[in-house]
Write a structure and sequence with these properties.
By secondary structure, the protein is an alpha/beta fold. It contains 10 helices and 10 strands. The chain has helices at residues 44-52, 74-80, 97-104, 111-124, 126-130, 141-153, 171-186, 198-204, 222-225, 229-236; strands at 4-15, 18-29, 33-37, 59-64, 67-68, 82-85, 159-163, 190-195, 207-212, 215-221. Strands 6-7-8-3-9-10 form a 6-stranded mixed sheet, with helices on both faces. The chain has a 4-stranded antiparallel sheet with strand order 2-1-4-5, with helices on one face. Strand 4 and strand 5 (67-68) form a beta hairpin. Helix 3 (97-104) runs parallel beside helix 6. The chain is globular. The N and C termini lie far apart (36 Å). The relative contact order is 0.18.
Amino acid sequence: MADTALSLEGLKVSYGPIEAVKGIDITVPDGSVVALLGANGAGKTTTLQTISGLVSATGGKIKYYGKDITNMDPEKITALGIAQSPEGRQIFADLTVTENLQIGAFTVKDRKVIQRCFERVYRHFPILQERGKQIAGTLSGGELQMLAIGRALMANPKVLLLDEPSLGLAPLIVQNIFRIINEIKREGTTVVIVEQNALQTLKIADYGYVLELGVINIHGPADELIHDERLVEAYLGKN
């Protein structure tokens, strides 16, 4: 039985009077890919941001390898081994590609580890090495997404949080991004992925949770969810 890398126990998050996440339970086994699926406004991004410490939980617990990290400082969470590639890329547009990657390693103190992280990023995304001196704001959408994931990998994470990595990208680029996510998993990094592209995500995921208005209404092994009629009708189209 794999260790649990991450667990959410009755997690609640509110924005003022609005409860965005309503007491959810999620288990992420070590070395797995777990998908959080659902429509816009379901609470997926809020859940990731709460794991990262960017949004405060109003109830429940977040545990990382058994350690309670609920509402811990975001920098400490990154230093422990959780890194997020946010929705909308959020790179530093005025800095070069290499400078953006260096910023991703801000919690890593060992130069040898940083060098290994660079090598890993360039292995997955060779275009980033070619574009090293280029100003990040001039990259294409696909390259920006590669940079956002690469920057998160520079933190040498045990758990990688990906928020909508396929958003706005051409189908071929999306296939490439998902192939690389699968490779990252094979290297031993645990991945939690928030996506609206349910079909592509379930093809690489081990387990999936479907959020609807802050509540988990369907969950199960990914290879079963792909054939779940409720999910097919809601997110995958009836064909």
